[in-house]
Every structure is written in structure tokens, then in C-alpha cells.
Amino acid sequence: MADSCEALGAVPEHERILQEIESTDTACVGPTLRSVYDDQPNAHKKFMEKLDACIRNHDKEIEKMCNFHHQGFVDAITELLKVRTDAEKLKVQVTDTNRRFQDAGKEVIVQTEDIIQCRIQQRNITTVVEKLQLCLPVLEMYSKLKEQMDAKRYYSALKTMEQLENVYFPRVSQYRFCQLMIENLPKLREDIKEVSMSDLKDFLESIRKHSDKIGETAMKQAQHQKTFSVTLQKQSNMKFGKNVYINHDRIPEERNEITLKHVLEDEDENEEEVLTVQDLVDFSPVYRCLHIYSVLGDEETFENYYRKQRKKQARLVLQPQSSMHETVDGYRRYFTQIVGFFVVEDHILHVTQGLVTRAYTDELWNMALSKIIAVLRAHSSYCTDPDLVLELKNLIVIFADTLQGYGFPVNRLFDLLFEIRDQYNETLLKKWAGVFRDIFEEDNYSPIPIVSEEEYKIIISKFPFQDPDLEKQSFPKKLPMSQSVPHIYIQVKEFIYASLKFSESLHRSSTEIDDMLRKSTNLLLTRTLSSCLLNLIRKPHIGLTELVQIIINTAHLEQACKYLEDFITNITNISQETVHTTRLYGLSTFKDARHAAEGEIYTKLNQKIDEFVQLADYDWTMSEPDGRASGYLMDLINFLRSIFQVFTHLPGKVAQTACMSACQHLSTSLLQMLLDSELKQISMGAVQQFNLDVIQCELFASSEPVPGFQGDTLQLAFIDLRQLLDLFMVWDWSTYLADYGQPTSKYLRVNPNTALTLLEKMKDTSKKNNIFTQFRKNDRDKQKLIETVVKQLRSLVNGMSQHT
């Protein structure tokens, strides 16, 4: 029962499977068939049975269907057989047509192949044309590059290379010729760098050779501009009534206008001739090389090389020649080369970007300035010619003004000029020392004779001399000073002019110039002129008459100092009342010279007295005097009278001092003659003769050879000698010994030591004549008295030494 139930249940399932098999695609039958084997046991067998039954049913249906359509099938076969004959005919016709068509198409095929070949060639030609259109510009540009290289247009060649690399080569990079070109470009660039660097070297060598010409042109232009400005300023000063001194005279307004006119005419004439640095130097190699290295991206290398080479050239330019200090041309060549160097650098600074910078030029200038100052300081020290120093100063001023116009600081150069100014003053002082010596050597040291009014006016115009009494005298007459005085005054003014020349163009105020002039003039007066005067005074051949004239000359020069101060004031327009105005020291200079001359007068006068005294020829053993004064002394007194008459032109005190000094020296010399250690014996007769000479001296002193002495002042010069001689002549030893040390003593000026020395000389004379005197009682008493006095005098001398 159970099996039957299962069988009944399986039948519908098998039908379903069969329906699925019939209705589904063949590829999807697998899962359906798998379900047959996955069911209950014996399901396969049952399914096969069911399948066979289904097949049988279908066969039956097919058989029914075939039976139903059999007649139609037979009819169709019959018709098909009929068509067979027609089909064979058609096949024959088609085969024939095909054969004929094939025969006809062979020619077409040949022509078609020709057409295809032509199409291929046409396509290839088009491709070649297209490629050539790409390559031709490259070749043209490369050819252009070669032409530019041959024409030395290197900057354009580098630009062409850039275009080839950036635009043209990428289009044809696949071609071998392009690779060759690409490989050749670095070599071309190196060639361009080498050629441009060679051009730069030639340029550097060229500007080194032409730097002096460049500098000379720049300095001429600066000097011309300065001259024009100065002329305009002078004209402006004249319009406002200012004093302008050039050289020795004030420039009149008409002369100033004429000068300005000439300067303006020269300015117009030279306008067309003004050359610039571009006119003298071709800077294209620098620009070209800079552009080339900029394009090559190696601008820093070029800048470093250019600066390094220029620094080397700067060191060469700054190195002076060893003989530069000998001529002004040596200095001028040195300055023009330096100016040319920095003018070129300034031009490069302004026309290029980055090749040189302001910091670089400032550093280079500071280095150069230190070297220039050191060189000028060293070489200028060798200059002994003031004219050369002045020309050097003018060159330095033009040099500084020129470079200042190009923006270089030059304050240190003007500071150097102050050092050179001191040296200039030293050379001037040396030169004027020679001038003064020549003036003194040519002077005759006698008053200037004037024979006419014209001659008098000429001298007065040169030297400020005023004497109302002299003006009233008729011609001929004499000026008190000698010829050297106006000459010295003129030369001092010349010195001031020479010193002023150096102060011009130093950009200093009138006060500073005034101070410089006064200081340099003071040096001239206090050092140079004073030294020349002192040397003159001490010269052996200068006699008393010349010394007297020198004293008179110094007095007049001293009076002229105020006129020198007025002269400086007129030049600088700085009043003497200004607080800081330096005063001239001429007064003290001439006073010192006068004192030295006075001292020399005293010395020479004493020397002359010594010469006369040396002529003395006393017989110190004479028994009786000659009864008249010695001849040498009378000659000496006559000489003194004539000399003191010359002294009347001297100031009173000088003549009085000279007279007193002469008398004192004469008294001392006579006393030293008595006390001379070589003189061993003196007789009373010799003392009496000596007394006669002293009396003549006293008479000379009392005759007042020089006016101005009060009473017996001059005679007091012989008081020591007079008291000593009176003591021995009167033989008043008792009074001397008794009153010794008393202020009222008659022989107050007689020194015991002096009296003892002279007494011993007379004692020796007494001993020598002892054989004749021992029989005379008076002589023996006198000898005893001498011995007694000698003992007492010795005791006085010993007492004085113990007290001392």
C-alpha cells in the first residue's frame, strides 16, 4: 500500500521533469537530470520507463503527423526534381559568367595594385614633406647659428641656441642629425665663452692703456667747470662789492667781466669738443660678455673674474713710479690713471646691473684712497720745491673734485692737503730763508740815499714809512733804514701771497684761511726771519756799524708789522677784532733780534777793546813814568769816541748800555792786566804810568761820550781800579786796614786779595833791588812795612775764606 502510494506520488514528479527537459535549454538539463538520481531508490528505473512511454507517445504523434503530410512531401519531391534541371543550367551559366568576370577583373586587379602603390608613394611623400617642414626650420636656425658664430654675434647665437633647444629640437628629437646638433651646442657655448672672455681681456688691456687719457679728459672737464663756476662767483662778489684778490692786485670789475666773457666764449667753443668716456672707450665687449654669461647662467663667474681683474689693475694703477716726486708730470700721470680707472667703474656701475655694485666700488675706492694717501704722503715728503708742492696741491684738488663729481667721498684727500700745506709752508720757509740771506748779503747796511721825489715815492709805495721831519727835508736826504728793510717787507708779502695760493680751492672758510695765513706768517717771522737775523748778527764780518744799522732796521720792521696784519685782513675780510684771530708775532721776533744785535754789539765792542788792550806794552820795571798816557789807550779812546757817535742813531738805553759795558770791560781788562799771573814784578814807576792811562779813561767817561748818564755814573765803571791805584800811589795802608769792612771806607771797592796780589808783585821787585836798598834806611823801613801789610792782608784773606 505504501509502495503504491509512493508510486503514485512519483509519477507526477517524473512528468514534471520530462516537461522541464522538453521546455528548457539543453545546457540547463544537468540540474534537472541530477534531481532524478537524487530522489528515492529505483527512481531512475521508473523515470526511464516513464521516458520510454513518453518517447513512444511522441513517435506515434510523429507517425500520425508524417502520415498526414506524406502527399505533400511527395509533391514537393516531384517539384524539386523538376527544378534540378534548371539548377544545373543555372550552375553552368554562373560558372561561365564567373569565368568571364574573372578574366575581365585581372586587368582591374593590375591597375588597382598600381593605384595602391601610387597611394602608398603619395602617402610617403606627404609624410616626408611633413617631416621636412619640421626639419627645415631646425636646419635653417642651425645655419643661422653658424652664420652668427662666423659673424661673432655671440649673444644672438646664444639666443638662437635657446630657441633651438626649447622650440625646434623637441619636434625632431628622434632624428640622428638632431642628436648631433644637440651634442654640438655645449661646445659652441664653450667657444662663445672663450671668445667673449678673450674680448673682455682685450677690453681690460685697452682700458688699462687708455685710463690716463680717460682720466685726463675727466679732469679737464672738471677743471673747466670749476673755472667757470669760480668766474661766475667772482663776478657775483664784485657786484656786491666784495674784495677779491688774485695774485697781487684786486681785480677790477671790468677785468672780471672780460674774464667771464672769455670763459663763456671758451665754454661755447669747447662744447662741441666735450668727450665722454663712451667716446674714448668701446664698452661693447663688456656688455656682450655680460649678456653672454647671463644667458649661459654663469653670470657670477663673469662678475668674479671681472672684479678680480679690475682689482689687479687697480693695484697696478695705484703703484707709483719711483721718480714720481721729481716732476709734476709724474703726479699728473698717476692721478689721470686713477681717475680713468674709477670713471670706467662708475660708468660700468650705472649702465650694467649687478656687474659692479655701489658697495664694491666704495670698497675699492676706500682701498685705493688709503693707498693714494700713503703714496702722496711718502712722495710729497721728498718735494723741496714749493712750486712743485703747489702744483701737486692743485692736481690733488682737481683730482678730488673730479672724483667727487662721480660720487666718491674725498674728505680724506682734503685732510691730506692740510698735511701737505704744512710741508708746503716748510718748503716756502726754506725758500724764503735763502731769499732773506741773499737780501742780507746784498745789503750795504747804510741808510738809503734819496735824491728825488720820484725815488722817495717808489720806496714809500713798497714800504710803509712815515716821518714828518724827514719829509720836510730837502733832497737829497737819507732814510734811516737800509735797503734790506723794504726788500724784506716785500718778500714777507710775497710769502703771504704764496701761502694764500695753497689755501685756494680747499673749500675752507675765510676765517680758516685767515688763521692759516697768520700762522704761516708767524712761522716766517719767528723762525725763518728770526734765524736769518740771528745768523747775520753772529757772522764774524758784521761789524759794529752794521750791527747798529741792523738794530735800526729791526725797529722799522717792527713798526711795519701792523701793516702786514692789515694786509692779511684785506685779503681775507676777517677783522682783527675777531675773538679767534691770530696775532702776528713780528713784534717779539724783531725785539729778540734787536736784543741779540745789542748783545752782539756789547760782545764785539768788548772784543775790540781786548784787541787794543793786547797791544799794550808796559815796562813793568820802569822807575819813572813817561809822563803821558800809553799810545794804545789813546787809540782805544779815540775808537770808542767814534763808535759812540755812530750809536747816536740807536735808542738811548742801548747806547748807554753799550758805553757802560765798554767802560766796565775796559776797567776789568786793565785790572786783569795788573793781576796777570804771568806778571811777576811791578815797579812803582809802572804803577804810576798805569795810573796815567786810567786817568785818561776817567776823563773819557766824564766827557759823556753817550748822552743820558746822570752825574758820575759812567766814571763808576773805573772806581775799583781808581781806589786800588790810589791805595798804592798814596801808600795809605793804615787807613785801608783800619777802615776795612766799614761802609764809609775810602777804599771800600779794594778787595784784600787783589791788594795782596799786587803788593806781592811790588814786594818781589823790592827784593830784587835789595843789594842797593839795604844801605838806605827808608827803603828798609818800607820793605818792613810791605811785609807787615802783606801779613795783615793775608790774615784778612784767610778770614774771608773761613767766613765763606
From TrEMBL:
UniProt KW keywords: Exocytosis, Transport
Chain ranges of the Exocyst complex component EXOC6/Sec15 N-terminal domain: 50-219
Gene3D superfamilies: Dsl1p vesicle tethering complex, Tip20p subunit, domain D, Exocyst complex subunit Sec15 C-terminal domain, N-terminal subdomain
Keyword GTP-binding: no
Record PANTHER family: EXOCYST COMPLEX COMPONENT 6, SEC15
Function statement: Component of the exocyst complex involved in the docking of exocytic vesicles with fusion sites on the plasma membrane.
GO CC annotation: exocyst; plasma membrane
Domain of life assignment: Eukaryota
Family recorded in the similarity comment: Belongs to the SEC15 family.
Protein known as: Exocyst complex component
Domain Exocyst complex subunit EXOC6/Sec15 C-terminal: from-to ranges: 413-761
Organism: Oryctolagus cuniculus (Rabbit)
Any GO BP annotation: intracellular protein transport
Database matches in InterPro entries: EXOC6/Sec15, EXOC6/Sec15_C, EXOC6/Sec15_C_dom1, EXOC6_Sec15_N, EXOC6PINT-1/Sec15/Tip20_C_dom2
Signal peptide residues on this chain, from the entry's feature table: none
